[in-house]
Write a structure and sequence with these properties.
The complex is a heterodimer of chains A (111) and B (108). Chain A is mainly beta and 111 residues long. Chain A has no helices and eleven strands. The radius of gyration of chain A is 13 Å and the shape is globular. Chain B contains no helices and eleven strands. Chain B starts with a strand and ends with a strand. Classes of the chains: A mainly beta (111), B mainly beta (108).
Chain lengths: 111, 108
């Protein structure tokens, strides 16, 4: 059973559409993160949350928003998708030892 | 500002040869450094942390504060080591910053 689950696994959408990527975890961790992975650019932090009431912008938050609905759920939204948001998106949690646990990723394509 | 640099995008070595994946960082405080690995069709997973001073799957990494480096080494590469490797840094704020990754191919 996956500890960090992302849905959907793949998504194709059109420019201008609103889209939500979902992440849930069963690890009981307070800290959750959203990253995007682009070839040659590695992983870049979009948003992070240290508890339900704590949301913080990362390096590349423009064009994205997040919602921490519960300790176990952290959703990423693209308000109006654009083609350069085509990427592989990862959700992660971390424990108190600063170990990150990743989901399997969501491949998003914006046409 | 914090930064993690992995100078090699691609690295190929023969099976049994030593391998070293380079990682340099810049950070004004006392960082924690990590190596994460992504095998084909698997999730990103932690390989090792500098604070643990451990050896995982034959890999080691030593934090050199003078050279601000955290290079990953293995004396004898195996085919199953072929993967994408990311160096990551965590500072005081519990954020994590990743390098651009090195794709390692071990040639049989």
């Amino acid at each position: 059973d996956a500890d960090v689950t992302q849905t959907p696994r793949n998504r194709i959408t059109k420019t201008g559409k609103r889209i939500m990527l979902e992440c849930s975890q069963t690890k009981g961790h307070d800290r959750m993160y959203w990253y995007r992975q682009d070839p040659g650019l590695g992983l870049r932090l979009i948003y992070y949350s240290f508890d339900v009431k704590d949301i913080n912008k990362g390096e590349i938050s423009d064009g994205y928003s997040v919602s921490r609905q519960a300790q176990a759920k952290f959703s990423l939204s693209l308000e109006s998708a654009i083609p350069n948001q085509t990427a592989l998106y990862f959700c992660a949690t971390s424990d108190t030892s600063k170990r990150l646990f990743f989901g399997s990723g969501t491949q998003l394509s914006v046409l | 500002a914090q930064r993690v640099t992995q100078p090699e995008k691609l690295l190929s070595v023969f099976k049994g040869a030593p391998v070293e994946l380079k990682c340099n960082y810049s950070y004004s405080g006392s960082p924690e450094l990590f190596w994460y690995v992504q095998y084909s069709r698997q999730r990103l997973q932690l390989l090792l942390r500098h604070i643990s001073r451990e050896s995982i799957k034959g890999f080691t990494a030593d934090l050199n504060k003078g050279e601000t480096s955290f290079h990953l080494k293995k004396p004898f590469a195996q085919e199953e080591d072929s993967a994408m490797y990311y160096c990551a840094l965590s500072g005081d704020g519990n954020q994590f910053y990743f390098g651009t990754g090195t794709s390692l191919t071990v040639i049989p």
